[in-house]
Amino acid sequence: MIRTLRLTGMLFLSLLFVAGLTADEGMYPLSDISRLDLRSKGLKIDVSDIYNPEGVSLVDAICQVGGGTGEFVSPDGLILTNHHIAFSGVTTASTPENDYLRNGFTAATRAEEIPANGYICRITESYRDVSKEVLGVVTSAMTPAERSDALQAKMRSLAVEEAAERENISCEVSEMFPGKSYVLFTYRIIRDVRLVYVPPLAVGNYGGEIDNWIWPRHTGDFSFLRAYVAPDGRTAPYAPENVPFKPKRHIKVAPEGVSENDFVFILGYPGRTYRHKSAEYIALYEQVILPYLSGRYDYMIETMEEASEGDRALQLQFANLTKGLANATKNYKGKLQGLRRLGLVDKRRAEEAALQEFIEKTPELNAKFGRTQAELRSVYSEYEQTALQEIIASLLGRNQFIALLSSVMRAVEKGELSGEKVERMQLFIQEQYGLIHRDTEIDYLATLLHDFMQLPESQRPAAVDALTGGERDRTKVYDRVLETFRKSAIASFDGITIVSGWDKEKLDSSTDPFVRLVRELNTLNASIIERRRTRDGELKRLEAEFLDAKMAWQKKEFIPDANSTLRLTYGYIRGYSPADATSYKPQTTLGGLIEKNTGEEPFNAPQQLVELYNTKNYDKSYEDALLEDVPVAMLYNMDTTGGNSGSPVLNARGELVGVNFDRAFEATVNDYQWSEDYSRSIGVDIRYVLFVAKYLGKADFLLDELGVR
Fold first, then answer.
1. Whole-prediction pTM value?
2. Which long-range contacts link 167-175 to residues 24+ away (Cβ below 8 Å)?
3. Of the four listed, 336, 394, 543, 708, which is most buried by Cβ atoms within 10 Å?
4. 607 phi and psi, to 5 degrees?
5. Widest Cα–Cα separation across the chain
6. CATH of the structural domain 21-120+191-274+561-706, one choice from 2.40.10.120, 3.40.50.12500, 3.40.50.1860, 3.10.300.10
7. In 436-512, which ranges are continuous DSSP H helix?
8. Domain residues of the chain, as ranges?
9. How would you classify the pairing of strands 648-650 and 656-663?
């Protein structure tokens, strides 16, 4: 009882202390960090310890890896990130006999660490504003397309010049505000990344797609990788003689974790947000793009799951694609729910009407921006007419049969297939054809041709009508496509190989309906590219004007939308109320995980984990004093999006207390609008990371390297 009273009293005092503290919307770029008053929010270290352009800071411990974020947690290049970030590397290394995805992977020695094929690691070295140089190439005489080309060309040339003759370095110019500001980032590149410890799928993806984007969550979404370089420190591809990379800084682990209302912050590489876009942009996505893509991805997942049922080798072949599609489609559905619940389009339109009224009352502003919003609406109105055409054409071009035939036809048209190149092309065809799952790709092909048939005749290639026989019924389209496919060159490896031996004249005169389809798709895509060039050039000008007008109206500077560059966000460990009469606490436990356990995927907790919980045969230092249980996941009101996966959740002293991996379902709309009420992100608690590594992975060597044992 005394212990309970003490803990309750501590919690009450904590609530009093934080009552006036709130998180702010913002994924702050490096240039803004020094201006933030984080001390008043709860930070206990100096802001220069987070980012110091003149010295070493926490920023030097952050890297971009596998499409997300990772953090160095030892002086020997050890990286902590998400299980779903390591997923592709583990899947590629897995076979039905050595199923690392299902069973997990542990490298007890450096020699046992295996390559994460296709992974690279990028570390931000420096940045500088190049807005003046980039915008200096634009002239008033340029067409929108010429403006777009000039900006892109200048961005590329600045990056190439900056990286010239510098080993291990890559440079990139990022657009911070469309048509307004540009920053050149310099990155150190590491090309040898290896798997060190990956928990079993039943831990790293516990709850599967049922729990994805959902709170409460009990997923141990973490993995350990390691970065390697050549013995002389240079970037090098995988080689046995490579040595662990020595980062300038690594992050110390705080094994005591965090409690409700504690101050926390994140450093990471958030992908894309769209908060400065107009109402018409959001309407286009809500009404056209998101509904189509979510429906199409659902169908693709269902098709692959049916085709691979009971076939583990095929499940592994599909694993990366199905996981990516499932993650995307649930995200899109969350966005749609959030947009509709908020009525965001109507709110933005009302805001923009008030902005227009403000502009028109000020002659100087009216002269500059009086037509800006009307012109923006016109651009998006035109885009809406062809948005589905552009998406369907893009998806059709990624169909594996179409993509392979297109590669062969492109080489024939360029006259590249002679001598040794013929043999290389035949090997390429053989390799690619061997990767195609015939039934699912034919199904996708027919589905997308059916989708094309729902568009106006003027928007679809004539070859689509020929292949479908003008049918619009899904079943009839499939039957026609399958019948035609069986007679086409793409129906066999030998058939496509024969096409590779044609000359351009024979290719042009071919009556094969799929050859004709690829030819017409190429023509369509060329026109889409031209259309996008013009649209992009128009939007660069108009969105810059739109932002200038809004800043004049609101009398404040804006934070740039996320764009995969390094950002900081901060907040507190905090629950929320997503619906009427519903309130969520911000921490989940091992006990809650066991309550969900059914023994069947996706709630099939490893038996060893169940026994550990039942027997309590573990070190009680892994438990949280208030929860009296091992914490698994935590919720916080920080501003994150895709790309923040794997980002370190850091306490007030800049120590690691968790790994960010998701958002709550209501927070998927974050990409368009952030709110203290519903914007919640999810991380795995560092105590669960350490607990799983020790007791399931038998990876005491990792705890030693982390300095926590």
1. 0.93
2. 167/234, 167/235, 168/234, 168/235, 169/125, 170/122, 173/130, 173/134, 174/563, 174/564, 174/565, 175/563
3. 543
4. -60, -35
5. 90
6. 2.40.10.120
7. 438-453, 462-468, 474-486, 493-500, 504-509
8. 21-120+191-274+561-706, 123-190, 277-361, 384-557
9. antiparallel
CB 373 within 8 A of CB 546: yes
Mean pLDDT of 161-185: 95
What are the pLDDT digits (tens) for 501-541? 999 999 999 999 999 999 999 999 999 999 999 999 999 99
Pairing of strands 121-129, 181-190: antiparallel
Per-residue pLDDT at 23: 56
Of all residues in the chain, the percent with pLDDT exceeding 90 is 93
Q: Which residues of 619-658 are buried (b: 16+ CB within 10 A; e: fewer)?
A: eeebbbeebebbbbbbbbbbbbbbbbbbbbbbbbebbbbb
Report the alpha-carbon distance of residue 271 to residue 329 in Å, rounded: 17
Smallest Cα–Cα separation from 680: which of 643, 638, 651, 648?
638
Encode pLDDT of 673-693 as tens digits. Answer: 998 999 999 999 999 999 999
Q: Measured between alpha carbons, how far is 470 from 407 in angstroms, rounded to an integer?
A: 27
Above 60 in pLDDT, residue 154?
yes
Across 573-598, average pLDDT: 97
